[in-house]
Design a protein that fits this description.
Blueprint: H1 6-23, H2 25-28, H3 39-53, E1 68-69, E2 72-73, H4 81-84, H5 88-91, H6 98-118
Antiparallel strand pairs: 1-2
Helix pairs in contact: 1-6
Length: about 120
């Protein structure tokens, strides 16, 4: 896959948009940072990376979350689509402002369209 792959680029944009919400404990609504991260989502990312891209993800040694680093998940966003597309402010309707919400939906729709073209939907 070329370095300028549009799907990877879209996932990077989505990760940049949602990262402040996640690293801030769901936009400040939770005390624990990255509250939505659970081992089952790490396992889903591991399986997705293996089956769609032929990649084996490297664990970080975190006691609960195999891919959690000091400043968040170390797995590229395109390899963890379930996580990359989740943001509490959208899922629970209580966080992103109008501008960020519009940007989220634009990116999500483009990711879905490009994922279909490439056969890389989760």
């Amino acid at each position: 896959m070329p370095a300028d792959d549009p799907l990877k680029a879209l996932y990077r944009e989505m990760a940049a948009l949602t990262e402040p919400e996640c690293s801030g404990g769901c936009g400040g609504r939770e005390r624990r940072l990255y509250r939505c991260c659970e081992r089952r989502y790490c396992e889903a990312a591991r399986e997705y990376a293996r089956t769609r891209y032929g990649l084996e993800l490297q664990e970080t040694g975190h006691p609960e979350l195999p891919f959690m680093g000091e400043s968040g998940c170390v797995v590229d966003a395109y390899l963890r689509p379930i996580c990359a597309l989740h943001v509490c402010g959208i899922a629970y309707g209580c966080g992103l402002d109008e501008v960020k919400s519009k940007e989220y939906y634009r990116l999500r729709n483009e990711i879905i369209d490009e994922g279909r073209r490439q056969g890389k939907l989760p």
